[in-house]
Amino acid sequence: MMKGIVFGEFQDALVGAFDTPGLEQMVRIRLNESLDNIAGAGAKKYVVFQLLTWAEQRGYEADLARAAYLERPRNDKVRLIYEKIGMAPAASLQTAGAAVAGAPGRVTTAAFEARVRPSLKEVDLGTWREKLAKIEAQVCRLEFNGNAKGTGFLVGPDLILTNFHVLEGPIHGKVPAAQVACRFDYKVLSDDSRSEGLVVRLHDQDWRVDDSPYSKAEADDAPDRELPTADELDYALVRLARPVGNEPVGKTAGADAPPRRWIEIPEIPPALEKDMPLLIAQHPDGSPLKLALDTQSIIGVNGNGTRVRYATNTEHGSSGSPCFNIDWSLVALHHMGDPAWKQPKYNQGIPVGLIRKRVAQKVQIEAP
After folding, report:
1. Binning pLDDT at 50, 70 and 90, where does residue 225 land?
2. In which band, very low, low, confident or very high, does the pLDDT at 117 lie, cut at 50, 70 and 90?
3. CA angle 336-183-82, nearest 5°?
4. Contact 31, 67 (CB under 8 A)
5. What is the separation of C-alpha 79 from the centre of its chain, rounded to a whole number of angstroms?
6. Is 238 in contact with 155 (CB distance < 8 Å)?
7. What span, in angstroms and rounded, lies between the C-alpha atoms of 87 and 221?
8. pTM attached to this predicted model
């Protein structure tokens, strides 16, 4: 049950953000319910009171907060409620690998405006948060028999991209593919409870679409011994049992609600410039979804362009995470950290342009 003050803030946010027709549409499309069946006639504030009471009784507070935020992402009061009740991922803000003191702890917080705009190219915070809200639903935790193994993300209606080494067991037949699952929407809520999210398994037959192994030098923890080849990109593209990317997000969402969609693999690879920022959406140590943002991250690209190194922090379990530039364009697939883990100097990923070039030969790449 929500605290009274939070209930009141939620009520004020909805009253200010929606007129009655807008509220009816949000409830119908995002929650698959009729507002008339939830609340009787009366002033809008009382109608909202009944809607909140209905959501609270059914445990739908987070669903309602997410629905409101997706409809009104630029409304400050709705954003604050999304932070308090919804599922905004925790954030880690860094510069050249060092944590920024006093940085905001949630990705939706307005404090990001103060942190992002002065030192980087200017971004429209409303658009930035809208894109993030979509990406949250497109990243998943990879599991073997319910145990965290890595991170992955949707790149098509039913296609997940992750690392070859994350799925090496199933690929080599050492782990049954039936034991593999992708858990979406796994997040910590404001009361420190967890949304366990949605579990989707691999296709029972045609799950293996395309893959490329890591290099022998990387296997030996000596990645600088020799350059990886264009056939050593440490990725796996796998097919899910159903096209979850075409389905709406949330257990209460109706068939007419906007679908989850997927992360675009850009046709023209974005630049990877020294000291540019890099954002990584990940499940570090198998934990609920988190975002690491480093404002001075890129260290450099290797001699043949098959690897990029950066300072943005990751942990075991972050393998297979999507790496973005400040505009939320996918630039790399995270795959490993410095083998000198006691005093690491870098993390490392695969430039996404190389992956697209290979994948396009096996499967049609759909725009989200």
Report:
1. very high
2. very low
3. 100
4. yes
5. 18
6. no
7. 37
8. 0.77
Give the pairing of strands 159-162 and 147-156.
antiparallel
Rg (CA), the chain: 21
> What are the strands, taking DSSP E only, across 157-233?
159-162, 180-184, 187-188, 194-195, 198-201, 208-212
Structure tokens, 35:
């507002």
Which amino acid, residue 146? Answer: G
Nearest to 199 by CA among 182, 224, 214, 186: 182
Q: CA angle at residue 104 from 101 to 108, to 5 degrees?
A: 160
The CB density around residue 237, as the number of other CB atoms within 10 Å, is 24
Gap between the Cα atoms of 240 and 64, Å rounded: 28
CA distance 119 to 131: 21
How many Cβ atoms from other residues are within 10 Å of residue 216's Cβ? 12
Calculate mean pLDDT across residues 259-272.
95
Alpha-carbon distances of 222 from 199, 215, 216, 218, rounded to whole Å: 36, 10, 9, 6
Which contiguous run of DSSP H or E holds residue 191?
none
CA–CA distance, 98 with 115 (Å, rounded to integer): 14
DSSP letter (8 states) at residue 134? H
Q: Which helix (H) or strand (E) element contains residue 120?
A: none
Between CA 306 and CA 105 the distance in angstroms is 33
Residue 107: the pLDDT is 56
Find tokens 């934990």 and name the residue.
287
Distance CA 304, CA 268 (A): 18
Helices (H), the chain: 4-17, 20-31, 35-38, 44-58, 61-71, 76-85, 111-116, 125-136, 168-171, 216-219, 352-359
DSSP state of 100: P
